[in-house]
Structures are given as C-alpha cells and as structure tokens.
Amino acid sequence: MSTYEATEREPLFPSPRVAVVIPSYRVTRHILDVIARIGDECHQIFVVDDACPDASGRFVAEHCRDPRVQVIWNPENLGVGGAVMAGYRAALRAGADILVKIDGDGQMPPELLGRFVGPILDGKADYTKGNRFYDLALVRSMPAVRLLGNAGLSFMSKASSGYWDLFDPTNGYTAIHARVAAHLPMDRISKRYFFESDLLFRLNTLRAVVVDIPMAARYNDEVSNLKISRILGDFLLGHLRNFAKRLFYNYFLRDMSAASLQLLLGCALVLGGTAYGALKWSAQAGAPSTAGTVMLAALPIILGLQLLLAFLMWDMQSVPRRTLFPRLPNRPDSFQNEETPCGS
C-alpha cells in the first residue's frame, strides 16, 4: 500500500483555486498560528465564527493581516457541520475548485495541505480525509479513550457509509472537489458532531471516490468540546438510520441485483428460523425438542447467515472506484509523480 509523499508547501498554479475553511469556536489561542502556517498553495481562507462566545471571528478580523482571509459570522451556533457548510457555500460563490477544511485548534498541520489536494488534482479522488491510524508507531500518542472510541466509530461508519476501506471517520482534516460539494444536500447534512460521518454517507449516495491520507495524531493543550456520553446515542441512531437508507437507496431504489435478493432472502430465513424455534420452544414448555424440530429452526438460520455473508462480501467490493470528475486542468509539475495515498 503506497503512501502519499509530498514536500511542504508545494506551489500550485493560480488555477485551480484552493480555498481553506476554518470553523472557529473557542480557538482564539491557536487560530492565528494555524492561518500563518497555511502556504501559498491556498488562495482563499474562510474563517467561520459559529457564534463563538470568545468572539474568535472578531479576534481574527482585528489581528490577522493575511489578505486571503475572510471572516463569516453565523447568527447562531450551528455546530461544526453548520459552520463548514457556511464556509463551503462562501467558497463555492468565490469560485474555488477545491475546498479544504482545517480545524482552528492546531491539531491539523496546515503544511500537509498538498497531500489532501494532490489526489483530487490528479483525478484519483473526489474527497480526501485524514487517517491518524495509518502509522502504528504514532498511534501511541493518541489517548486510550480516543483510540477505542475511534475504533468503534470507524466500524459503525464503514457499515453506514459503505466505505469499508476507510478508517478514522471523525477526522476533520478533509478536502473535496468543488463540483462534488455543489451536489451535496447541505441543508440535510448533520450540523453537529455527526457531521463527518453523515458526510461520508452522503458522498456514497453520489458514488464519490474517497481516499484516506496518512497523518500523525497530535494532542497538545487543545480543549475538546466533544463529550462522548452526550453524543453516543446520537451517533448510534445516526449510523443505524444511514445504514438503512444506504441499503434501500443502493440495492432497491437505484438498482436491483443478486445482492438485493441475498439481503432479502437472508433476512427472511434468519428471522423465520428464529421465530419458528422460539415458538416451538415456548409451546413445548421445557420438553426436549426432536432432531427434526431443531433442524427446521437451525437450517433456515444457517442458510440465511450464508446469504447475508455473501451480501456483505458484495457490499465490501462495491466501494466507489471511479471518480465523478476528471483531473483538474493546469496540473502543477510538482505533483505529477506523486503516488496515490492509502485507501484508494
């Protein structure tokens, strides 16, 4: 599996235009340093003040002299998803070709921007996202609670989004082709912490190609606003809802295939065998069941599980592989010989 190696702050031609979106909420300690580290490959920077109690947008407007920076104020707190969508809309209106989202708390090195933009420029991805789990040596720096939480969330996200080859779904370091972003149902995407996972589900409905970009996990003195106990239920419900929607959209609404039949028959056999066995067990009131009764309950369950496993293999092999849009024109020479990142 190849990795994407890129020198820091690689220059891009004036076209295509790269815009960076920075959600701003209680990040006044770090955001000026983040902006200062964004290289010349970026043409525009949109700082979105999401009704920040620290007035971080006003802080940037008063202290930042970078001409690329434009501050956007949300009239009310919309959450990270709402802030990013506001930045996306502004960048699309400004004519950006690639939209990069970086947090303002300093955990995401702006110097890696070229790694996220490169696959989109090459026509190898429609959307790129960070993966802090690629280098096992660097994973040791991640707190144990975050490590276990991300592992669980990653498995749920694989099932709900259909991108079985991706990991670290809540990673907020992302880049997206502007024409793909323009097709997103921005008003329906989750506006809170489920934003990144919900966005992956929406991208799968578009059949967009998503690529993981290896990056280091960095945890310094940043303060996280995420409370696991508060969002766990929302994440579970969100993933279950998206999982059901994805199966319906991909296997029954848009297309009917052998996998659709495997899913229907598998579920019917498992549920039928389980129901028959439960009824017989309750009717016999503890009396031993005959071998025939056991087989009549067990055989449909076994066959159903085999069909569901076959469907799962089909689903895993159906990850989008062909990008929605070709490589962007005026590709800089400094990116010509780059390899595709992991997860492609």
Descriptive overview:
This protein is of the alpha/beta class and 344 residues long. The chain folds into 2 domains: 18-249 and 329-335, Spore Coat Polysaccharide Biosynthesis Protein SpsA, Chain A, CATH 3.90.550; 256-316. 45% of the residues lie in helices and 10% in strands. The chain has 11 helices and 7 strands. It has helices spanning 31-36, 56-63, 79-93, 113-121, 136-139, 144-161, 178-181, 195-206, 228-253, 258-284, 291-316, and strands at 18-24, 44-49, 69-73, 98-101, 127-131, 174-177, 210-214. α2 (56-63) links the parallel β2 (44-49) and β3. α6 packs parallel to α9 (228-253), α8 packs parallel to α9 and α10 runs antiparallel to α11 (291-316). The chain is elongated, with a radius of gyration of 23 Å.
Please specify the SSE layout and strand pairing.
Layout: E1 18-24, H1 31-36, E2 44-49, H2 56-63, E3 69-73, H3 79-93, E4 98-101, H4 113-121, E5 127-131, H5 136-139, H6 144-161, E6 174-177, H7 178-181, H8 195-206, E7 210-214, H9 228-253, H10 258-284, H11 291-316
Parallel strand pairs: 1-2, 1-4, 2-3, 5-7
Antiparallel strand pairs: 4-6, 5-6
Helix pairs in contact: 6-9, 8-9, 10-11
